[in-house]
Please model this.
Amino acid sequence: MRAMITGKNFLIFLLAAFAQTRVEAQLWVPTFVSDNMVLQQNDTFHLEGKAVPGGKVTASADWGGTKITTTANNNGNWKLNLPTSKAGGPYTLTISSGSETLVRTNILLGEVWICSGQSNMQWSVENGINNGKAEAAEANWPAIRMLYIPQTESDTLRTDADAQWQVCTPAVMRKFSAAGYFFGRKLHKELNVPIGLINCNWGGTNIEAWMSPKPKNLPTDSVAWNAFKSEKIKLAKPSSTLYNAMLYPLHIFSVAGSLWYQGESNVLNSRFYKTYLKWMVQDWRKLFGNNMSFYYAQIAPFRYKKSFSGALLQEQQRLAMGELQNAGMIVTADIAGDVSDIHPKNKLDVGERMARWALNKNYKKNNLVVSGPMYSGMRPEKGQIRIKFKHAESGLLVRGDTVANLQIAGENKEFRTAYAKIDGSDLLVFNPNIKKPLAVRMAFQDWAEANLFNKEGLPASPFRTDNFPVEAEVDYAVSINGNGSKTIRMLSKDKIFYTLDGSIPNQKSSLYTSPIQLSASATLRARTLRTGMLSSEILQKRVFISNSYIFNKIELQTMPDKKYAAKGAATLNDGEAGDNIFSDGTWLGFYDADAIINIDLGAEKLLNTVTLGLLQAQTEWIFFPQQIRVLVSNDGVTYKEEKFAENAWVKSESAEFAEEKLTMPNNVKGRYLKIHLKNVTKIPDWHLSKGNPAWIFIDEISVE
Model:
């Protein structure tokens, strides 16, 4: 006979079932304690979770028959330390409490690394990397596992993140940190053990967001801390919010180390970066309970808006190398490719250079050289300076005709182009016109790339031997007045000395006290005075003024390349004359094409001169035009050539700016002008890029 459940009994049954459901729901572990995990071999898994208060919790793993039991506290929280054995798998982890059981399968033991930082660490195949399609297609690595921590902020510490481990497949790899993937792949191939990679990064974030709320040993009266607060710098992310939400939950894992690629968002407060990096590494090691390895990338060349901001951040990163233990820095000064793009597409070298550090220091592959040449000292010698390097024992080599972006200064502290000779592992730097050299800089500009390497093919880090003030650089603003004159406002809190004749400013030069009014073209040079010392950086700005006609319309008959389109046609008469920095937003660049420009003066005018601003930077494939033709028309349909000029362009070692002034024949009148600049078309044979298309760069045009 079937038992009958009465109404009262049915209610009791539902309550009991509900109670049982509540109990079963109380056994909990973080979401990322999932199938497909990789745990650090021969170490400890610091497993944490929740259960019924006072309930026993047991974790058992089938690597070596490991079984650990603990008891949940009054709040239901529990912790246990689960030893791991040597690399291998797959294994199963079982966690039980009362009648509840959680099972995690396909677990491997191997080497676990965190991949953190901002966008250059976050950058994936989907964002665009060199050879990305082919790299993704072959990314089938069953023993490489990936954990992608979602980008989340929090003002308080969190213990979970909505993420689960995944086996490396082409689809998974495409979204993952490319630098992290290439690092992990290199380790897996060399060590033949499982690799676990944790993607914990966020583009555009500053280092402060990745530091703990109270960095260990941070004094309340710290000079650096107070100086930073006084700057009132606006952070991309509030301090500690990413540490709280993204990094802290990971503390249950033991890790071999961390990879770090960050710094671009700290260029405006770069002088604190070394201190912050040291604090952060100390924090992370405390969080993970070991002296984990820390390998980081020096930021790549990029044209920041404020000169030297990137160079000073690179310098802080290089100096940190001397003060961080169990750490290493890779150099990226040779992989920028396009210094107007803050995201180099070469992530293979980034990952594999980081892997060199790990393979050598963590895994005892002692035959691997870990770094390119690092500046270690200098010594004046008979009109030259000897530069000493670490990590150059095998000798130095240059990729190119000479060491690029090398400068030397004498007693006046003005840096000029330098030349170099390799002497074993040293570099002898000189300029024949500087008899008593004082200081050397190599690639010490935001945009400067390095072409000096050791024999193992690893690049030298940018450096300078001086400590001249460069942060107090001069910025400026130019405005055009109704009468064609210009007003220059200098933007600096420091004293500014300037000249208008192109000479080098000193403390006897004009002191800037109010906006400068100019009614004629001039070369402005300016320097700031800070703590009694003039800045080594000299602002040089060509201010272009003429009694020119006002154009009604400028039309670009041939279009500039989008990469260097500046303000379009407005670039040609906006008052912002270009200099020898071709990516400063003041030039139009025409690639493999003539530049043809149509001008409407609004009415018939007597034409005296046509002046063009042109750039030649042959090391960057930019040449003066081979020919310039000026054609004039009154109706805009029928044109007559009134001026023809042909430049005998010559080989040049450096960028050159030219104002090409074309004097028109007597009594030429016209309303419409067509200016045709003929591209040299192909780079000449003496150039390293011979046969490739050339560029024309043009800025201000004046018609008088």
